[in-house]
Amino acid sequence: MEQAVLSAENVSISFGENKILENVSISLFDGEIVGLLGVSGAGKTTLFNILSGIYVPDSGRVTLNGEDVTGKPGKVSYMLQKDLLFDYMKVIDNVSIPLKLKGMKKKEAREKADPLFKTFGLDGYQYKYPNEMSGGMRQRAALLRTYLASDGVALLDEPFSALDTITKSKMHTWYLDIMSRINLSTIFISHDIGEAVKLSDRVYILSGRPGKIIDEIKIDCPKPRPENFDLSDEFLDYKRRIVKSLHL
User: Fold this and answer.
1) Which of these ranges, 60-74, 158-172, 199-213, has the smallest mean pLDDT?
2) What residues contact 199, with CB distance under 8 A and at least 6 apart?
3) SS3 call for 71
4) What is the pLDDT, as a whole number, of residue 248?
């Protein structure tokens, strides 16, 4: 049986008298994109903080490639909603921060990051500043930084939520293409049902208070997805199932 690259096993956590998550188990396999959907307050970000080692659960554990990494930050790369680029730093120095934190000198970090700018559609922006880029390009830079911080696994917290509809649609297409090339196994939080269906291999539904996994949906459509997948009856059927699970 294939081993998950990242998993939470029967994780529960409370803050004071408030139980936030109860017996939550999710898994991520090599090369997968997994969506995590749920209403506000269900505990999605709390679960990410546990997966990334920021929070220690009251019970349960987190494993990375079979190793217990519960409560060990720095093992799993985590990209927050905002791009968090430093406007006073050149883009190449922003994205290579994880390499410098690992002990690389500035020149060496730049040399490692530079070839990836073309892969991420950012070639020519290495020595520009973040305020010279569009919102979509800033998100690409943030994802490149996350990739450089990762060991093949990343958590993305609503990575496209700040973008307008047209830019978001273009980013979805780009994201699916780049993920197929760099083989970054990813779990991402979304409040957008269509986005989760379009991007994911599987979708977990987290609901209730305390939050529990109430459904796991496999998006059984091969990648690359058909050009008009999001207009197909199959796509709409997945959306209907998720809406039903969420009781919307």
Assistant:
1) 158-172
2) 33, 35, 172, 175, 176, 188
3) coil
4) 61
Say which residue the tokens 């997966």 belong to.
Answer: 51
Tokens at 142, concatenated: 């943030």
Q: Tell me the whole-structure pTM to 2 decimals.
A: 0.90
Count CB-CB contacts under 10 A for residue 200: 23
- Give the CA count within 13 Å in the CB-facing half-sphere of 94: 24
Distance CA 50, CA 61 (A): 9
Residue ranges covered by each domain of the chain: 1-76+152-248, 84-149
Q: What is the pLDDT of residues 88-137, one digit of tens each?
A: 999 999 999 999 988 999 999 999 999 999 988 899 999 999 999 988 89
List CB contacts of 105: < 8 A, sequence separation 6 or more.
none
How far CA 80 is from CA of 45, 138, 187, 198, in Å, comes to 10, 13, 12, 21
Instruction: Round to whole Å and give the CA distance between 104 and 113.
Output: 11
- pLDDT tens for each residue of 142-164: 999 999 988 889 999 988 887 77
Instruction: Strand 202-207: give its sheet, edge to edge.
Output: 77-79, 153-157, 185-190, 33-37, 202-207, 212-218
CATH T-level fold of 1-76+152-248: Rossmann fold (3.40.50)
- The interaxial angle of helices 165-182 and 135-149, nearest 10 deg, is 30
| Amino acid letter for position 243 | V
